[in-house]
Amino acid sequence: RLPVSLQAHPTISASHWVWREVARILHCHPSVHPLASIWNNSKILVGGRPLLWTDWIIAGVLCLRDLFEGEVMRSFSQLQEKFALSSKQFWRFLQLRSSVQSVLRKYPEALHSHSLSVTFQVGFRSGHLASRVYKLLIDPGMGVCLPLQSAWEGDLNYEWQTIWNNCTKASVELKSRLTQFKILHRTYRTPLRLFKAGLVSDSLCWKCRSENGSLLHMLLSCPRITCLWRGVFDRYSLVLGVDIPFSPDI
Ligand SMILES: [Zn+2]
Asked: What is the superkingdom listed in this entry's lineage (predicted)?
């Protein structure tokens, strides 16, 4: 929990809420992972209180990962060598080590690299951190998009994992991305959907009035828009010099 004095701060309270939500979605304990701060951490306590040791912070000891070499906790001399801590900090080191060891007994997974930590490390190194985290959150492997994926699989037999992985790469233009997002997330109010919701009197396609207006019909297979798609396929066949048969799968 945030200290009471910070709960009314709009930026800090919103960031805190976002972080906890991200941790919840990705099944990652918000206070116990390699990149969790040692300081003001509600799980790392000495004498029942969280720590805030300025000397250590200035020296660069910030997160749990800084205390470890692989999965083994660094000795005081190793920490001294890496962070130039003074010998006077030895007593504090013993306190911190005892606290961290008790956390590890309770959360043995704390030092394992979670997909979120890996994403942060790659993002810090190569950039695009926000979009990498966003992509991780919408990854169907996390179960977020599974109902959506089964709806698509019922319509089109395709390698959907590849589509989800590439869905942000189709265009740099925002409007096209938004259109693609809406299509992939099946947000369009089709006649069939409106009929099922009791908002219109029949489920027939608005254009041809001969078949049910499902998403696939409205976007691809309605005879009234077939000429458009045939034109697109013909043009691609011409430009690429290969015959691309007309099919919704493509
Ligand atoms: Zn139609």
From this structure: Eukaryota
